[in-house]
Request: fold
Amino acid sequence: MNIEQCVSSLSMPLPEDIMKRKWAGDLSGAVKAIDMRLAAPLPEMLRARLVCEKERIRRLPTQYPFTRDEAMEKLSGLIGQAVSEAEFDRLELAGWIDFIYINGEKRYFVRFHRSMLHNGALEHLTGQKKKPENAYLDPMIAEIMEKGEARRRITLKASLYVDREAFVPGEYLAHLPLPIEDAQQSEVRLLEGDPDGLGDARAPARTAYWRRTLDAWRPFEATYSYVTHIRYADPLGRPAPDAPLYPTCASPCAEDLGERGAYMRFTPYLRDLAQRLTAGESSDVMKAWRVYEFVTTQVTYSFVRDYFQLDDQGEYCAVNLKGDCGLQALLFILLCRISGIPARWQSGLSIDEDYVGSHDWAQFYLPGWGWLFADPSYGGSAYRAGSETRHRFYFGNLDPMRMAANRVYQAELTPPKTQLRVDPFDNQSGEIERIGAAQPFTMRQMDCDVELLACQTL
Reply:
């Protein structure tokens, strides 16, 4: 299988009969129909699309494990009170509860209940509203605004592994995300670990990688440190400085304004949306702000199924008006690029005192300012909590508690994988494959744990 062609083929639709079977829940019928097509001569791209769809269908049920009774039990247990059938139906019809059909039965998304708790859809049941203040973020934001900067040396320990029940002895290739040298990040040091190699410091997607034969289960581990340096930007309230805030960043290139691959696509709907959002604005800063306003105020944060399962991810976010941090960042980037504003991807980790998790955000370019940051999901959370300061801060800035491992969406890994990736587009949690295995791992068969060991203010 040509992996790059397989992923690129996702920009084209499925044959109609196969799509009907898939979304009607006849997954085995869809696979049989695909196999019949693959047995005949086909255009190369269509063949790649069908091969890719077989893998999508194989993974799809892992995203939707709950029956209706189990989903209601999960939701009731989360909020500590019984949810009525009528209320469950109302939430589902309103689009808050994600489902598919499998063999005639509705099956519910694995994190639907946590999405609603996160985005406030259950406030009418729990009575718990988001507070405008954030005891962790607000002091850091105040520090940055007062001093004009914030510097931290952060030390993390990361472990990547196949779940024990999915482990089979054999030869493995593993990629663990590692900090890049870019904009706000420098002085990356590997402190512990035995990788076979480290990606280039300015790679589009940087990893430490191992190629090892394993007779018994083991994690792939690395401890590293890096310095993050945030410089305060207020592009809405201040004139551009004499020099860019992050002078080591490369100047914008054609790629920062263009389409790329299967999912960085300027669809007719996105073109129309960008035009309407920026109508009447002549400056890049106000155009970018109108885009940021739309994503942070009109798009609701929601966990979604694996990106591999979504078509036209930016448009998906703009049509459904919901999405997680990555879809919101991707939509911001696409709308900026369509509006003539260079924009690009950053992703890796978000860190606080008791949790380290995957996260995505964006960069955009303004004359004079150079490359700045935008975090639509953090900005949207601030908007819904009623914090105008925090909402505005994440237009131009990040907090320093990040680890950026990727600066290009849908970037290749080095060394390249031979199998389809768990996530062909982003690399926040790492990738593992067993060389020669008939099928790649799914996202439910591997995991990545990251622990904050130290955070020093510099």
